[in-house]
C-alpha cells in the first residue's frame, strides 16, 4: 500500500510541475521526467518476478523509451501536441520506470555499473550539446533556457557520480582492503 502512495505522490508532483514545464526546460527534463520515471519504479508491480527469458527484452524496451525521451523532438511534441503530452505521462512511468525496476535486480553488478556509467556519459554529452549547439535544439525553448538545461545535465551527472561513489568508499569491503594494504606496507618496513 505504501508503494502505491509513494508512486502516486511522484505522479502528483510530476502533474504539479506541468504548470512550469512550458516555460522552463530544466523543470521539464530534470524534474518532471525523473518524477514520472520514479512513479513507475515505485509501482507495486515492480516487485513482480520476471521470467529470465524476458529480462533482456524488457531492459531493451526501457532503454529505448528512455533514449526517445532524451530527444529534443520528443520534448517539443510533449509541449505542442496532446498526443505527445499523453504519451509522456503514459510511457515514462509504464515503459521506462517500471520495466527498469523489474529488471534491475536481475542485472549483474558489471551491467549495472555499465548502465550507470552510460547514464553519466549521456548526461555529460547532453550537457555539452545543449550548451554548445549553435541553434536551438528545442523549438519550444529559448537559447538561454537551452544553455541552463545543459548546465543542469552536467550538474546531475556530477551529482550521480558522487552518489554512486559514496557506497564504494563507505563499504566494509573497501575498509578491509585498505586495512590489509596497511598491514602489508607495515611488514615491508
TrEMBL record:
The keyword Ribonucleoprotein does not apply. The chain crosses the membrane at residues 26-46, 53-71, 86-104, 113-131, 151-170. Keywords: Membrane, Transmembrane, Transmembrane helix. The keyword Cell cycle does not apply. This is Transmembrane protein. It comes from Cognatishimia coralii. The lineage of its organism: Bacteria, Pseudomonadati, Pseudomonadota, Alphaproteobacteria, Rhodobacterales.
